Amino acid sequence: MVSSRSLPASSDGRLRAQLVDLVDGIDPWDDLERDHLRLAGEWLAGGAPVYRTRKPDVPDTHLVSYFVVLDAECGELLLVAHRKAGLWLPPGGHVEPGEDPWAAVERECREELGIPALASDITGEHPLFLTVTRTRGQGEHTDVSLWYVITADARTLTSYDEEEFTAIRWLTPEQVLAESLDSLDPHMHRFTRKLMQTAGATGSLPRGRTSR
Question: Could you tell me how far CA 35 lies from the centroid of its own chain?
Fold first, then answer.
C-alpha cells in the first residue's frame, strides 16, 4: 500500500493523493486484484502521467472509469456491445485530465446512455473493483480501470450512443457468468462474482452468492 502522505503537495500531487486514497479504499476480491491494486498504487506514486492526452495510447498507461448499471429490482446488469473493442463491456470511458473518476462516470453516463448516474447503495460514489488490463489490437495500451456500480430502472433506458455501441443487453449475474470470456472484458466474471457477494451481504441484489 502506498501512503498518500508520501506524494508531493503540488496540484498534481493532491490529485494523485486522492486517487491513491480511492485505490486504497478498495477491498481486494482475490490475489489478482490485490496485485492490480499494488501495481496501480505504485504507478500513481511513481509520477507517471495518469490521464490520456491523445487517442488511443498516449500515455501508454492511463485511467479509465467503468460503470456497471444495475437494475436492483430485477437483479440485472447492463452490458454494451462496444464497436471498437468487439466485446460486451460495461459502459465507461477515459478519465479526462484533472477529472475526478466519479465525475467521469457522471459525464460518460449522460453521453453514452442519456441518464443520470445514480450511485448504488452497494458502494456509493466509490469503486468496487480495480483492474489493470493490456488492450488488444491497433493502438494497444494499458487501462487502469476503476469499476463503479450505479443503479437504474431498465425501463427508463430507451436510447444509447450508437456511435460507440451496436447493441445493449440486460443480463442477470448468472447469465453474465454463463457467457464466454472471449466475448467479454477479461475480468467481467471476477467483477460479477465480487458484486454478487458484496450485494448479497447488503441485500442490494435479489440473487444468491457465488463462490470464487
Answer: 17
Rounded Cα distance between 105 and 89, Å, is 15
Residue 4 predicted with pLDDT over 80: no
Contact 60, 141 (CB under 8 A): yes
Task: Record the pTM.
Answer: 0.89
- Beta carbons of 206 and 70 less than 8 angstroms apart: no
Share of the chain above pLDDT 70, in %: 89
For the chain, how are helix, strand and coil distributed in percent, rounded to 5? Answer: 35, 25, 40
Higher per-residue pLDDT: 209 or 131: 131
The residues, any chain, with a CB within 8 Å of residue 41's CB and separated by 6 or more, are 1, 2, 20, 23, 24
**Burial, 203: exposed, middle or buried (Cβ in 10 Å; 0-12, 13-18, 19+)?**
exposed
Mean pLDDT of the 75-97 span: 94
